[in-house]
């Protein structure tokens, strides 16, 4: 019997594939659909203190090798997602959910966490330090001093399971530097990676950019992203304390891609672009394909190959 079970922060999950906070997790309707699918669980859209409409449309476009988006963090505000999760916790006792949060400064991050603490939320918080799509706001994950300040303030206050979502890094020195910072904190996990920020996709026929916000600049997801995502998962697994788990996100289109993320060290795998393209049926397909890869290789569970990527 092949199992894709996993665990994050001491919580067990029947599957190791779930949605990513990003392009399919905005409304109760979308979250209901993820809940009713083969996904391990759900993570909410990154919530802010007050609701946001996000960037003007069109703000998402599929491309031959993936997608470009500049959603700009549209969300209904943290209270909406805490209410949704509270109802889910009552409906399915024992199941664990993720709430994604993002403040626009450390004070807002702390205010968001206080709101979580004041609620009946029992799951895992994901702090998004990597959205590339808010005009005028740099990606926090590239400012290592800011990351340090935020994590110091966060862990002064909050001791329940918390992970962070990071942007992709491209230089081995940057992996060394950011991992040294992260290893100082009791992080449950690192989620690598958010989209590659500020790519540009062009419609040659129309001689135009594809999306409206930020003159067409947006986060690149899908197949383009996979080598970068795998590099980040593998580089972090080599550098982070073993107590810090890894969620691998980026470029998953099929079960072999999920297998590769786990081989590089991911404990859970999230999907964004392919979920937006195919809808929640994708979770059943990816799980079936992952199990087929595992069966062909003789693996019964993901721990048998997790992090065991061979180097030459
Ligand atoms: C967005 O809302 O712009 C996408 C989510 C993210 O990049 O964190």
UniProtKB/TrEMBL annotation:
Chief localization: cytoplasm
Active-site residues per Swiss-Prot or TrEMBL entry: 131
Record Pfam families: DHO_dh
Binding residues for FMN: 45-46, 128, 165, 193, 222, 250-251, 272-273
Record-listed substrate binding positions: 45, 69-73, 128, 194-195
Sorted UniProt keywords: Cytoplasm, Flavoprotein, FMN, Oxidoreductase, Pyrimidine biosynthesis
Pathway(s) where this gene product acts: Pyrimidine metabolism; UMP biosynthesis via de novo pathway
GO molecular function: dihydroorotate dehydrogenase (fumarate) activity
Taxonomy, superkingdom: Bacteria
EC number: 1.3.-.-
Domain Dihydroorotate dehydrogenase catalytic: 5-294
Function: Catalyzes the conversion of dihydroorotate to orotate.
HAMAP family in the record: DHO_dh_type1
Protein's UniProt name: Dihydroorotate dehydrogenase
Source species: Uruburuella testudinis
């Amino acid at each position: 019997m092949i199992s894709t079970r996993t665990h994050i922060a001491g919580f067990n999950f029947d599957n190791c594939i779930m949605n990513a906070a990003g392009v399919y997790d905005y409304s109760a309707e979308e979250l209901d659909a993820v809940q009713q699918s083969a996904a391990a669980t759900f993570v909410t859209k990154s919530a802010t203190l007050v609701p946001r409409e996000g960037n003007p449309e069109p703000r998402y476009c599929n491309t031959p090798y993936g997608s470009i988006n500049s959603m700009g963090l549209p969300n209904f505000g943290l209270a909406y997602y805490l209410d949704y999760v509270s109802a889910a916790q009552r409906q399915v006792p024992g199941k664990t959910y993720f709430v994604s949060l993002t403040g626009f400064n450390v004070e807002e991050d702390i205010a968001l966490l206080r709101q979580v603490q004041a609620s009946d939320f029992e799951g895992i918080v994901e702090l998004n330090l990597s959205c590339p799509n808010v005009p005028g706001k740099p990606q926090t994950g590239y400012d290592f001093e800011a990351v340090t300040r935020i994590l110091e303030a966060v862990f002064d206050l909050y001791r329940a399971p918390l992970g962070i979502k990071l942007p992709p890094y491209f230089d081995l020195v940057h992996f060394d530097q950011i991992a040294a910072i992260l290893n100082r904190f009791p992080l449950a996990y690192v989620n690598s990676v958010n989209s590659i920020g500020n790519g540009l996709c062009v419609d040659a026929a129309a001689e135009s950019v594809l999306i409206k916000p930020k003159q067409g600049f947006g986060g690149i997801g899908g197949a383009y992203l996979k080598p970068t995502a795998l590099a980040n998962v593998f580089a972090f697994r080599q550098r982070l304390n073993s107590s810090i788990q890894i969620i691998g996100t980026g470029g998953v289109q099929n079960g072999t891609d999920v297998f590769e993320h786990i081989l590089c060290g991911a404990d859970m795998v999230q999907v964004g672009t392919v979920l937006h393209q195919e809808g929640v049926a994708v979770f059943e397909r990816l799980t079936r394909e992952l199990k087929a890869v595992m069966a062909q290789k003789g693996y019964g569970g993901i721990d048998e190959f997790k992090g065991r990527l061979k180097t030459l």
